[in-house]
Amino acid sequence: MRIALRLLPGLWLALLVAAPLALVAVMALSWQAEGVPPYSPPWGGEGINPENLRLILEDPHYRDSLAQSLVTATLTAGLCLLLAAPMGIAIARAGRWRDALLAAVLLPFWTGFLIRLGAWIGLLRDEGWINGLLRALGLVEAPVPLLYTEGAMLLGMVHAYLPFAVLPVFAAATRLDPALEQAAADLGATPGRAFLGITLPQLFPAMAAAFLLVLIPAAGEYVIPELLGPPEATLVGRVVFQEFFGNRDWPVASALALALLALLILPILLFQRLGREG
Amino acid sequence: MTGDGAGAVTPPRLSLRGVTRRFDSVAALDGVTLDVAPGEFLALLGGSGSGKSTLLRVVAGFERPDSGTVMLDGADLLGVPPHRRPVNMMFQSYALFPHMTVAANIAYGLKREGRPRAEIASRVAEAVSMLRLEGLESRRPHALSGGQRQRVALARALVKRPRLLLLDEPLGALDANLRERTGFELRAIQRESGAAFVMVTHDQAEALALADRVAVMDRGRLVQVAPPREVYDRPATRFVAEFLGAANVITGTRTADGALESPGAACTLRPAAPLPLGVEAVALRPERVRIGPAIGENTAAGRVEDAAFRGESTLLLVRLAGGATLRVLHAEEDGAPPPPGAELRVSWDAASVVPLRA
Asked: Where do the ABC transmembrane type-1 domain residues begin and end (chain A) (predicted)?
């Protein structure tokens, strides 16, 4: 029983992480081909194909999509953190309102993801509620383009990922010893100083975790840019989708996915290192 | 530093008048009036919920009383936010800043005062040497032992040279061996610093050993404020006698001539002076009870039920004729104690019968 329990995580990792990853890596080194599946593996007679990876590193189309994704994901994670840090701390200190406020943060999960995006479309489109209101108030004559903009995309991303950032900050803030801030006050620190110098540094690891928890899924996000973003927002998720289903070029799509993974490992390592030092 | 010059009227360092604090309808502090002299070491002794920690937090500024005044050297404290009070506190959990080194923890309060760097450095060094923390300056709190953390917390508060230092169970987190030694150190540091110390503790031995005066609290009220010897020898109320633990508390009814007739002890306890009206209990310390032929009129008969050897003495549980149990301390130097089952006679001096208010 105990051995089985020990093997279980290993089995889990092998089945759900290592195997798919290996499959993607193999595909990235394969050749595009007619048929099902539409590629021929390195052992199919043609050997390893280094062209897919080289293409991704050299072709500005792919490089830009990776860069654009990282910028968007970083912006999303940064904005989420900016909102989540005060929210998490405030909820942790909300006394008897704590559970209700936490439930309010999690409430959006009870609605389908696509329904939430649909709601944003309904609000933001030219004939939507916001433009309707602006026109009714006489503030604008022609509708303001809101939907299919960078702003709408970021709004959707922040809205979708905010709970992931709030939870770690909240959890860390509830574990803070209230005596620390009192000790700072006792030693002469104003409430603001005590918060910045004593409370906030203890939340840094949780804030780093919150940032990463948003950054990583946001970097590969496909649906939100597709539904809310501008056509020129060719984020890597969209490009992978395009290669995979549009061009049926599974090897290039796989190579792109690997490149994104490689790019995301860097910040993870960096944050882990900071966490150890802190 | 104890400003008790002849005839000089020194205002008390800390002066509490009618301090009351209610949580919902329960009074955590109920009209507490207390003075602490400069350089005095006062212990607030009480069980959990007695209000002793609330009182400390009121003085530190983390709790606002509903009524009453708190003065430091004659100046009002209640209008002053915690970070401006010239009072420092050592927290029960020590509350060391985990992301700072020992030196940074100690320097924190001086930095908030805006002291020049050189002064901060020399005062931190002074505090480090006073509390024997040399070599630990660059460690983080998690890399320290319990005793070291306790000393850092003390250094961090003392380096500010507070006129009044509040200590919340300062020895509570230490193991028994370290407690005794740290207790002596605490007294020495208190004398050296000249600050008034107000210490909260639930441990009567700690309060008696360290403090100049002990203030016993029960349900938000001060029941007795007196030097340790007096609290020990002459507990004012039944609560104090029972909280301090060691004394026998004998209940009964007051006779017309001021003695206590106790059915449990099957005797009449006659104090040196007639008992005040309304007193229906007395304290009798175990070491004041003699075994042997009756001397005087304070005497009772009983049988040894059990005995516990304590090294320098043996504690006997004596069942008196009326059914009450009397704890009797039998000194080793008086020879072998009577064995369990032995019938004997006990007696005591009138002066040892201490009247207890309800």
From this structure: 66-271
